[in-house]
Amino acid sequence: MLIRTPKDWELSESSATAEAVYRLRNRREFLKTLGAGLAGVALAPHGLLAATAGFPSKENPLFPASALKPTAYEFITSYNNFYEFGTGKDDPAKYANRGWKTEPWTVELAGLIRAPATFDVNALVAKIGGLEQRVYRHRCVEAWSMVVPWDGFPLAKLVALADPKPEAKFLKFTSFLDPKNAVGQQDSYLGWPYVEGLRLDEAVNELAFIATGIYGKPLPNQNGAPLRLVTPWKYGFKGIKSIVKIEFTDRAPLNTWQRLAPNEYGFYANVNPQVDHPRWSQASERVIGGGIFAGRQTTLMFNGYEKQVAGLYKGLDLTQNY
Ligand SMILES: Nc1nc2c(c(=O)[nH]1)N[C@H]1C(S)=C(S)[C@@H](COP(=O)(O)O)O[C@H]1N2
Ligand SMILES: [Mo]
Predict the structure, then answer these.
(1) 24-311 belongs to CATH 3.90.420.10
(2) Mutual orientation of helices 121-128 and 155-162 as an angle, nearest 10°?
(3) How far apart are CA 227 and CA 230, in angstroms?
(4) What is the percent of the chain where pLDDT is above 70?
(5) Does residue 236 line the site of ligand 1, with CB under 6 A?
(6) Which ligand has the minimum distance to the alpha carbon of residue 239?
(7) Average pLDDT across the chain, whole number
(8) Omega of the bond leading into 232 within 30 degrees of 0 (cis)
(9) Of the residues 241, 244, 257, 282, which should be mutated to test ligand 1's pocket, given the most ligand atoms within 8 Å of the CB?
(10) pLDDT tens digits for 54-110?
(11) CA 74, CA 46: separation in Å to the nearest integer?
(12) Domain range annotation of the chain
């Protein structure tokens, strides 16, 4: 059997090319839109009206683009899960860009903390001191994966700002509620708003990240503008989008997917190739991105971040605490 292993430079070139083509096309569209005058404002490219503070970001050398092959921008922003805007993968790109406004936007810090506050997102980024870029693996519980160059800041910085009291043991994240503009919220099956949670020690782990951008540009609405959680060692559903509130609590919040199907989804949702979903295997994943290098690859324990996070789960039976 002949297997040709692509060279590193081929991989990064293929992704860099896809991104360059995307930028060019987008730029042409943008110039056209500007030419169209006032109507152009409503037709501006995705993300132009989202949180804009902090760009350009600086690459964090611990998570560089050279270490992983980033998925092309057009795939990251057109193949999405965002049930507020429908259940199809291409629904969010369509329906999250029809009148739903993500600027201005505020996020509230509440609960068992010494510094409760409500921040405008741009002011928050300024207060935190700017953005960095981190290239992370992104593994959905549905067994597909991407590599995303996120812009944002460590969640630990937000936790420090909130100044948790000793009783605070968990964070409860809540997404927005706007059934008028979020067509998926007109159907109540998921129980809106979307809710997620982390243990406080998970939240201050070096990997836990709040993203406000992708590829050096503000987050497109379909990816969770203007700010969303990124926990790369966990399945994608933990990465709650378009956060409006973070509450510090003394007990584990019931997250949306666990409430809906507790036999299939738990609180931890750590990527684990040895624990299958009741309806499919988690041993491997479909790599999103098209092209000749796309295919399936083996799923790694903690999605490849064992070194950074395994210590958080010492003594915990991961087949029971999934
Ligand atoms: N508010 C909200 N956040 C969400 C979801 C959602 O439906 N609503 N879907 C989750 C799932 S299942 C995944 S895989 C990721 C997808 O993020 P992406 O579209 O940026 O790849 O977002 C997560 N965050
Ligand atoms: Mo997912």
Answers:
(1) yes
(2) 100
(3) 10
(4) 83
(5) yes
(6) 1
(7) 88
(8) no
(9) 241
(10) 999 999 999 999 999 999 999 999 999 999 999 999 999 999 999 999 999 999 999
(11) 11
(12) 24-311
Atom 5 in ligand 1: which residue has the minimum CA distance? 82
Angstrom CA distances, 109 to 53, 75, 102, 192, stand at 20, 33, 18, 20
Substitution candidate for ligand 1 out of 77, 81, 223, 265 with most atoms within 8 A of CB = 81
Please report which confidence band the pLDDT of residue 52 belongs to, taking 50, 70 and 90 as the band edges. Answer: confident
83 lines ligand 1 (CB under 6 A): yes
Using left for φ > 0, alpha for ψ between -120 and 50, and beta otherwise, residue 34 falls in alpha
H-assigned helices in 167-246 = 200-203
Q: Structure pTM?
A: 0.86
Pocket test for ligand 1, best of 46, 71, 82 (most atoms within 8 A of CB): 82
pLDDT at 293: 62
Residues in Cβ contact with 109 at an 8 Å cutoff, skipping those fewer than 6 apart: 115, 116, 117, 118, 119, 158, 161, 162, 246, 248
Question: Among 18-22, 114-118, 192-196, which is the least confidently predicted range?
Answer: 18-22
